[in-house]
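S1.2 Input.
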Amino acid sequence: MRQIAVLCSVVAVSLWAQIAGETTSELPDSLFVFDSPRPLVSSSRELPASWGILLTFSESGFGGGLSYQRGIRNDLAWSAEVTVSGARNTNEFEVYDPYSGTVYVPGKVNRLFMVPLSLSVLYFLFTESLEETFAPLISAGIVPTLIVATPYAEEFFRAFQQARLFGRMGAHLGIGVRIRYAGQSFLGVGLRYYTIPFGGSGLESVRGSPIRDFGGIVLSLRLPL
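S1.3 Output.
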């Protein structure tokens, strides 16, 4: 009996080993694999449309205006900017007359103002290697400009009744950076060189020192609107 029991045990172990060694068939996968008709995560930096407030500083002083920018692709955009600022010679300084108690600019004959409309193309650099929040750029464009001259001898607002208007065409080249901080909102900092030739003998701000080019270096700050 003991031998029979041992034999039965050996047979049982052999059968169990064969059953355990069998390969089980995999259950069919009931999940569907599909391709999305559009990217699930967009890596584009394109700005569909963006309005902003511009603050500018140049040798002529401070200015301000509005900016509109729209993306063409992830590394290219166009913009339209209109600003208002003064224009003057770099050597104009106000002095105080103690006898009359007034402040004036010696030799000044005209108050000059500029309203440039900058139509630009912006090209963003290193779009594949930098974060979306930081984008250096270069820009170029044309600048049709309205120049307004009013007589300095007249009171500031009354002088506009005798204003003379001049239209001139210019251009610019620049560098800058766009800093995105909330969704599609971004700050912009730019440094541009403008050339806006007046032509002829120029236009006087101070007697004997006509301005022949109303361009120059302009630093700008763009704030979201």
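S1.4 Remarks. The radius of gyration is 36 Å.
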